[in-house]
Amino acid sequence: MKQSTYEKERLFFSPYAQKSFESKGREREETPCSLRTEFQRDRDRIIYSKAFMRLKNKTQVFFSPDGDHYITRLTHTLDVCQIARSIARCLSLNEDLTEAIALGHDLGHTPCGHIGERVLDRLSPYGFRHNEQSLRVVDVLEKDCKGLNLTHEVRDGIVNHTSSGKAETLEGVCVSLADRIAYINHDIADAVRAGIIRTEDLPKEDIEILGRDTSGRINTAITDIFSYSNGENFVKMSERVQKASDHLRKFMFQEVYAKANEQIQQSAERMLSEMFEFFRKNKDKLPEQYKGLLERYPIEVVVCDYISSMTDRYAIAVFEKLFVPRNFALGEINF
Question: For residue 189, is it within any domain?
């Protein structure tokens, strides 16, 4: 079966695609699977990781929302995966590699969305970036601190999925573009649902180019990338669509992300800052898994590992356990 996959890649992939049989491999050698390519194995390892399971309870924009239809890190990840695979498919690139990168790209995100990332970056002398933490999750933290031992290409795509990164493979670029396409469009839907903006508030000149609804805008982006990049050794939007996308993204940062962050900024910063200082000064209170890391890494790095692994609800529960006085039954209180 695997040899059949290799043959299909030779026959049908773009000359610029990353072939599975040409992977640079893993840091630690392993016995190959008789059925799956190495990129398919990576995808499976990520799906069954604990960090991936926790994404369903991590904030995308709105902190621990009560509604059932707000985007979480998990639904965002699935959005990115779908869009990235669509781009890879139409350009005859490696969908398995694209999918593995997409599924792993946000594993290192903190609770409280990007506020959490900024807080840990400010508190840790070593800094904190969610893309770098995602790589640390798959390299170090998963499988009881043994790591997932993923292929070079998947690891590269994960750490370079942000706009400042430059992935080595076109499949990694597909994920980077899909990430921006996904979060802008589903965040618009969340912002409208939350009453922060109305659909008619969106910049009209950008909407005329990109589309009036989520489906239309995503279709425009994918179609434009195909038309501009097909047969080329790059994956890009045309200048017209890229300019409109950048302008819409700027609008979202000014009108949505800033306002959404205002609602939880102070409480989230206090919660995460207090927990960071507590565990930095009381390393014996860390879970056993993280105590073991102290032999190899500074305390601040390990505290970031622990806090960034938390879901929104778990972070609140830990904070309450550490800092909120427990209730006593009325019968035990003396007046």
Answer: yes
